[in-house]
Amino acid sequence: MATLNLVLMGLPGAGKGTQAQMIVDDFDIIHISTGDIFRSAMKNETEMGLKAKAFIDKGELVPDEVTDGIVKERLSKDDIAKGYMLDGYPRNLEQANALETISSELNRDVNAVINIHVDPEILVKRLSGRFICRTCGATYHKLYHMPKVEGTCDVCGGHDFYQRDDDKPETVRNRMDVNMKMNTPLVDFYEEKGLLHTINGDQDIEDVYKEIKSILDKL
């Protein structure tokens, strides 16, 4: 099989984490999450890691060229000879163009972009369904895990529930809007290049993976 170099895309809550693990297990490629490589570069005090840390310590956003540099450092390593899957990068068109240059220089071009698509309204319901018992901290979900008796905690019998600010529908919707604004140009960019494969993420986990696997098997 040719080397498999992927970009994984999808809105928050679309199930990227679950699918990423299944892809890595099956195809023996390295999962490169931007959060992980940032932490690793800063911990190992690489040139780009130190640059990133200087911005983060000041509470500033890390500029694209530093993020690109950290990705380039990671893609230069020998452990990705069989392939890689980028998750969380690129996040905008500047980074997508930089990735083209980097991967071409390293002779590790991206050969597929997997975009897990779920209707944003469904995602808002998924992500804003969590609520918590104020008395004992037991967690419930409006779609997947309601208390056995409505309004009464299964664990402690309390009746006082709350939602964290992060889980409130308006916060989740706002996060979704921000992500959609970032994702849409990338989807168009990769579609024009003939690399985009959009997967229906609103199915059982196994069915989503079956669809992804059939695409990757052909590459």
From TrEMBL:
Main localization of the protein described in the UniProt heading: cytoplasm
Catalytic activity: AMP + ATP = 2 ADP
Protein origin, superkingdom: Bacteria
InterPro entries in alphabetical order: Adenyl_kin_sub, Adenylat/UMP-CMP_kin, Adenylat_kinase_CS, Adenylate_kinase_lid-dom, P-loop_NTPase
Pfam families given in the database record: ADK, ADK_lid
Domain statement: Consists of three domains, a large central CORE domain and two small peripheral domains, NMPbind and LID, which undergo movements during catalysis. The LID domain closes over the site of phosphoryl transfer upon ATP binding. Assembling and dissambling the active center during each catalytic cycle provides an effective means to prevent ATP hydrolysis. Some bacteria have evolved a zinc-coordinating structure that stabilizes the LID domain.
Role according to the record: Catalyzes the reversible transfer of the terminal phosphate group between ATP and AMP. Plays an important role in cellular energy homeostasis and in adenine nucleotide metabolism.
Family: Belongs to the adenylate kinase family.
Official protein name in the record: Adenylate kinase
Organism for this UniProt entry: Secundilactobacillus oryzae JCM 18671
GN (gene name): adk
